[in-house]
Structure formats: structure tokens, C-alpha cells
Amino acid sequence: MLNIPDSNRYTLTSANDGPGRDPKTWQFQGSVDGSTWATLRCPQQCILTEAFTQYKFTFSNTAAYNYYRMLVTANNGATTA
């Protein structure tokens, strides 16, 4: 679950069913129009070590966006859904 309380931080809650499905690398992005995206934070590797735990991430940002997304580029090893 992704929660965005404001435009310079977000939280991510790990799953409680399979750690291999948790995201490992991703890009957190913002967009004004829903078509063009700016990468706001791109952690190199982040292993979510505890099941069903909320992790907090912060980043520097001065722009306002109407849309946000988390583009997962790798999971923690799962090969099936």
C-alpha cells in the first residue's frame, strides 16, 4: 500500500504474505498532467525486512504535482505473482 501525505515524503507498507514480492528497487514519480513523469526519489536497493511494516521515505521537492506513482523496477526475488 502506498500513502502520500504530502509532496516530499511517502510511506510504503510491506506485504505479509511473501517477502519475494516486495519491491526492491523503484522510482517514485510525480506528474502534473498524468502523462509526463518526473522522478522524485530513486532508491538503489531497499530490502523491506519486516512483514506488514510501514517504511517512511523522504526526498527534496519544491514542485506541486497532481499525480504520483511508484514505478517498481525489481522485486525481492519472486518469479511468480
What does this structure look like?
This protein is mainly beta and 81 residues long. The protein has one domain (2-75). It contains no helices and 6 strands. It has strands at 2-6, 9-13, 23-31, 38-41, 54-58, 67-75. A 3-stranded antiparallel beta sheet has the order 1-2-5, with no helix packed on it. The mean pLDDT is 84.
Task: Fill in the keyword field for this structure.
globular, three-stranded antiparallel β-sheet, mainly beta, 6 strands, 46% strand, 81 residues
How many strands, which pairing sense, and closed or not: the largest β-sheet? 3 strands, antiparallel
User: Radius of gyration in whole Å, from Cα?
Assistant: 13 Å
The percentage helix is under 10%
In total, the number of domains comes to: 1
Largest sheet, order of strands side by side?
A: 1-2-5
Uncertain segments are: none
DSSP strand count: 6
Give the number of helices: 0
First-to-last CA distance? 16 Å
Could you say which structural class the secondary elements and strand pairing correspond to? mainly beta
The run of helices and strands is: EEEEEE
Amount of beta strand: over 45%
Shape: globular
